[in-house]
Structure formats: structure tokens, C-alpha cells
Amino acid sequence: YPLSSIPDYYMMDELLSDEHKLIRQSVRDWVESFVMPQIDKAAQEHRDIPNLMKELGSIGALGPYIPEEYGGAGLDQISYGLIMQELERGDSAVRSAASVQSSLVMFPINEFGSEEQKRKYLPKLAAGDMIGSFGLTEPNHGSDPGSMETTIKDMGDHFLLNGAKMWITNAPLCDIAVVWAKNEAGKVRGVIVERGMEGFTTPETTDKWSLRASKTGELVFDNVKIPKDNLLPGVEGLKGPLSCLNSARYGISWGVIGAAIDCYCTAVQYAKERKQFGKPIASFQLQQKKLAEYLTEITKAQLLCLQLGKLKNDHKASPAQISMAKRNNVRMAIDIARESRQILGGMGIMGEFPMMRHAANLESVITYEGTHDIHLLITGLDITGINAF
Ligand code: TGC
Ligand code: FAD
């Protein structure tokens, strides 16, 4: 489909700055030329896209809102959202790579790291010369990270890290991992673990049906000696990792709009071209109903994100507001991906078209960064003041 057919039904562009539109266009062009030609093959072959992180670094998609003095672009939150939207139009695996690096690795180092840590890691992470991962989830604790079993023990001149993290995006590729573990006092602390530290391994999780162009794995720590300088000094408690999630979930709310747009635009074009009973299938009311509903839902999601972005720029977005957007928009996107596949009939199952790939990817997206049900409970808690976890 022509890129000019990407919907802006409520003229949201009028609310964006020239800089926002320029950033969106440049990422859109990159996705079109770099991601689109190779994404189906990568997903079919269950492998990552070669050189992805360097490429993402070169277009400024890693840590866009990190200050320029540390290698970021110093952009606002709406720019970050628009970048995520364009990346996920390509594939959720591409957005995931940028999300983890930006919101889950660069964000905590920037927010909670020492000056030395910022200077050591952030510029390399921004350039894609270094790949980061984020270890919160464990084999026995996913939705309930507060019960984590991974520990750091103070040994005087270093810490000893023991435990395991599971389902970690980019674990097999990472040069560093931001890992959350409990100290002797039971307080959650963050440490930067570097590849090559003795006792640190990253086995790959294979045979996924979802996010096949993204590497997932475990982070295993067997008496890993962590230098004291690698502790994130600026935060203690679960609010450390959860603050990172606020940023990543916000990006996902925008990102999934991109996946929905890709499915919607493909479906509109196909419905206009494909003829049955002597007419384009777009002329049947049943198909028009679907297309009209997709556009309505995409438009609502865009407006939700834009206002959330403004709140975030003003440091007024609450975690519960972010949960609402993540939950609503991922549901919107997965519904559109699943439904729009049917508009293509048999062709909808083919790799030539993106619906099956997006729908399968979104099964991970609706689970990670807090499941659909957990976000509902966060909204429920915000309404009632009663914790129903
Ligand atoms: P609770 O007792 O409510 O809170 C503990 C402390 O944390 C604070 N807090 C937050 N702080 C900042 N942002 C938030 N969103 C926060 N939510 C809670 C809270 O104020 C409290 O602070 P303090 O100072 O009083 O100690 O926590 P709980 O144990 O009852 O758990 C509730 C919660 C919110 C953790 C849980 O509902 C939840 O969110 N579970 C989901 C876990 C999750 O999202 N995991 C994601 C792992 S990372 C990932 O999936 C990456 S995929 C990326 C990719 O590939 O793109
Ligand atoms: P569980 O917590 O066991 O939940 C299972 C089901 O029970 C869910 O439907 C859930 O909603 C429901 N449930 C749980 N508690 C309640 C409750 N109180 N009330 C009602 N229902 C409940 N994690 C990281 O730390 N870093 C990463 O980079 C990362 N990348 C990921 C990449 C992929 C591809 C995937 C699939 C996951 C990734 N995750 C990552 C982990 C992800 O965040 C977790 O899978 C997610 O938080 C859910 O945890 P769980 O899988 O253990 O499910």
C-alpha cells in the first residue's frame, strides 16, 4: 500500500510539530527500506535481523529521550512514541529491541545510575555498539516480581549474584544486563551485569511461535562476582524496575498502533482489489463494517496516546493511565490483526502479507510488560483503592 494511505483520520498531524513529523517520516522510510524487505524471512527462519541494533542506533531510535550529552537525542515523549509506532509497523520484534534498549536499559542507567555508569554505557547503547537486556521476570515469578528469588549478597569488596531470569528479550545477544535482585534486607536493587563475568550465562529460548525475529533467553547467575561500581546507586525497591516499565509500556501503547495500521492498510488495499461475485469485496457491507471499525479503533488509540504523551512530557502521566493505554491499544491491535487476516481469505495466512506475523507477535505483547489482566487490575485498584492482585 502507498505510505500516503496511512490513516490520520482526525488530522492528528495538526497537533504534531514539524520535528515530530520529520522524525516519523525518517523512521517510516527506514522501516520501508530496511525492515520490510527482510522481516518475513527473518520471522519464518526464527532468527534476528543482522545488524539491527547498529541500524537502530544510526537512525536515532535508541534512547531518543536520553540527554544528548550521553549520546541520546534529547527528544520529547511524543517523538519517542512516534518512533515506536513506525518500528512496530515493521514488526514487534524491531520495536521490542528498541524498547528494551531505550526504556529498560538506558532509562534506568540514566535515572538511577552514577555519573561514571552513564558515561561508560549510555553512548555505546545509544549507538547500538552495545546491546542491553533487562532481567526482572523469573521462572517462578512473572506477574508478581516482588516475590523474586534472585539475590545479591554484599561480600565487602564486591557483590555475589545468584539466581535466574527467564523470558528475557535479547538475552542471548546482550553485552550487558540490568538485573533486579534482592539484597540481604529483602530490598530490590539493580545491578549491571557484563558478558564475560564468570558464572553468567544466557541460554536461548527456542521454538517460539511469536516474536520469531527477536531473540529471547534466560539470564543465569551462578555466584557471579559483581563489582560494587556496577550497583545502580539511585534506587531501592520495586519502584526501580516498575519505573522502567512505565516508560516501556508507554512506548508499546504507541508501537502497537503501527502493527494495527500495517494490517488495516493491507486489508483496505486487498479488499478494493480482490473481486468475488463480480465485485470488489470492499463493496460488501460486512467487509466495510470491519474496515470502519478498525479505523475507528486506530483513531481512538492514536488520540489516547497523543494525550498520554503530552501528560508524560509534563511529568503528569500516572502509571495507571499508562496501564490503561497499554491494555486498550494492545487489545485493539491484536483484534485487528486477527480479524483483518480473514479479509484476505486464504491469502491471509501467507508470509507475503503481515497479518499472521503481527497477530502472533501481539500474543507476546499482550503478555509482556504486564499481562492484559494485570493492567485491568491496576485500573481496578486505581478506581476502587482496593488491591485485587
Ligand atoms: P506494589 O506493592 O503495588 O508496589 C511496590 C512498590 O512499587 C511502586 N510501584 C510503582 N512505581 C513506579 N511505577 C509503577 N508502575 C509502580 N507500580 C508500583 C509502589 O508505589 C511501591 O513502592 P514503595 O515505595 O511503596 O515500595 O507492588 P505489587 O507487589 O503488589 O505488584 C504489583 C505490580 C504493579 C508489580 C504488578 O501488578 C505488575 O505490574 N506486574 C507485572 C510485571 C511486569 O510487567 N513485568 C514485566 C517484565 S519486563 C518485560 O516484560 C519486558 S518485555 C520488553 C520487550 O521485549 O519489548
Ligand atoms: P504469570 O504471571 O504466571 O501469569 C499467568 C496468567 O495468570 C496470566 O494470564 C496472568 O494475567 C494471570 N494472573 C497472574 N496473577 C494474577 C492475578 N493476581 N489475578 C488474575 N490473574 C492473574 N521479562 C523481563 O523481565 N524482561 C524481558 O525482556 C522480557 N521479555 C519478554 C519477551 C517475551 C517474548 C515474553 C513472552 C515475555 C517477556 N518477559 C520479559 C516476561 C513477561 O513480562 C512475563 O511473561 C509477564 O510479566 C507474565 O509473567 P508470566 O509469564 O510468568 O505469567
UniProtKB/TrEMBL annotation:
<dbReference type="GO" id="GO:0004361">
    <property type="term" value="F:glutaryl-CoA dehydrogenase activity"/>
</dbReference>
<keyword id="KW-0560">Oxidoreductase</keyword>
<dbReference type="InterPro" id="IPR013786">
    <property type="entry name" value="AcylCoA_DH/ox_N"/>
</dbReference>
<dbReference type="InterPro" id="IPR006091">
    <property type="entry name" value="Acyl-CoA_Oxase/DH_mid-dom"/>
</dbReference>
<dbReference type="GO" id="GO:0046949">
    <property type="term" value="P:fatty-acyl-CoA biosynthetic process"/>
</dbReference>
<dbReference type="GO" id="GO:0000062">
    <property type="term" value="F:fatty-acyl-CoA binding"/>
</dbReference>
<dbReference type="InterPro" id="IPR009100">
    <property type="entry name" value="AcylCoA_DH/oxidase_NM_dom_sf"/>
</dbReference>
<feature type="domain" description="Acyl-CoA dehydrogenase/oxidase N-terminal">
    <location>
        <begin position="17"/>
        <end position="129"/>
    </location>
</feature>
<dbReference type="InterPro" id="IPR052033">
    <property type="entry name" value="Glutaryl-CoA_DH_mitochondrial"/>
</dbReference>
<comment type="pathway">
    <text>Amino-acid metabolism; lysine degradation.</text>
</comment>
<dbReference type="InterPro" id="IPR006089">
    <property type="entry name" value="Acyl-CoA_DH_CS"/>
</dbReference>
<dbReference type="GO" id="GO:0033539">
    <property type="term" value="P:fatty acid beta-oxidation using acyl-CoA dehydrogenase"/>
</dbReference>
<protein>
    <recommendedName>
        <fullName>glutaryl-CoA dehydrogenase (ETF)</fullName>
        <ecNumber>1.3.8.6</ecNumber>
    </recommendedName>
</protein>
<dbReference type="InterPro" id="IPR046373">
    <property type="entry name" value="Acyl-CoA_Oxase/DH_mid-dom_sf"/>
</dbReference>
<dbReference type="InterPro" id="IPR037069">
    <property type="entry name" value="AcylCoA_DH/ox_N_sf"/>
</dbReference>
<comment type="pathway">
    <text>Amino-acid metabolism; tryptophan metabolism.</text>
</comment>
<comment type="similarity">
    <text>Belongs to the acyl-CoA dehydrogenase family.</text>
</comment>
<dbReference type="GO" id="GO:0050660">
    <property type="term" value="F:flavin adenine dinucleotide binding"/>
</dbReference>
<dbReference type="InterPro" id="IPR009075">
    <property type="entry name" value="AcylCo_DH/oxidase_C"/>
</dbReference>
<dbReference type="Pfam" id="PF02771">
    <property type="entry name" value="Acyl-CoA_dh_N"/>
</dbReference>
<dbReference type="Pfam" id="PF00441">
    <property type="entry name" value="Acyl-CoA_dh_1"/>
</dbReference>
<keyword id="KW-0809">Transit peptide</keyword>
<keyword id="KW-0285">Flavoprotein</keyword>
<dbReference type="InterPro" id="IPR036250">
    <property type="entry name" value="AcylCo_DH-like_C"/>
</dbReference>
<feature type="domain" description="Acyl-CoA dehydrogenase/oxidase C-terminal">
    <location>
        <begin position="237"/>
        <end position="378"/>
    </location>
</feature>
<keyword id="KW-0274">FAD</keyword>
<feature type="domain" description="Acyl-CoA oxidase/dehydrogenase middle">
    <location>
        <begin position="133"/>
        <end position="224"/>
    </location>
</feature>
<dbReference type="Pfam" id="PF02770">
    <property type="entry name" value="Acyl-CoA_dh_M"/>
</dbReference>
